[in-house]
Amino acid sequence: MVDRAAVFDVDGTLVDTNHLHVTTWWEAFRQAGHRVPMHAIHRSVGLGSTDLIAHLLGDDRDEDQDARLSAAHTALYAQYFDRLPALADAGRLLRRLHQDGWTVVLATSASGPELSALRRAIDADDAIAATASADDVEEGKPAPEPVEHALELVGVPAERAVFVGDTVWDMRAGSRAGVRCVGVLCGGIPRDDLERAGAQAVYDDPAHLLSSLPAGPLGHTG
Hints:
Oligomer: single chain
């Protein structure tokens, strides 16, 4: 039997961090003199830092500010590293999939100490075969490269993979990589938006996905 891969986004999918990102990006922009509405930031969470800044400030911004904005966000967000809250049953879901024969991979724009903090929150390292982080790719989501790299790490073809995420950027990345996409609502993005971006199934959160495994796209290893 060829291996099957369950690829997971992390922020907003397994760990309840999206609104922490919104608040800390809002403050980073405010400190730099930019008035960016929180709802716009929320819709941009899931992009890598440079892409998020470009999406919100436009291509005519002073790009020399990008590194300072990103560093400010990182410093503000780092205050929460010791208490990032995993979403209900996130770790149980990954361990169950591992037990069921899935190869579990993370594909995230986080890296370094932030990624370590997220993995501590999930507390399921024994079930995670590999992680594709922002440091490993040239282009982040919605480009397919993060998902493609995650699959390369474990040697699983796209047709044997499912990607779970909470943003339209996740769904577009997964669709472009040729994998089946599953959306979760716990990141705060509406069901219709996820479905339009490529989600073939949508669940409330990891707990809902876990309880629905027998009937869902992650329900068997055949």
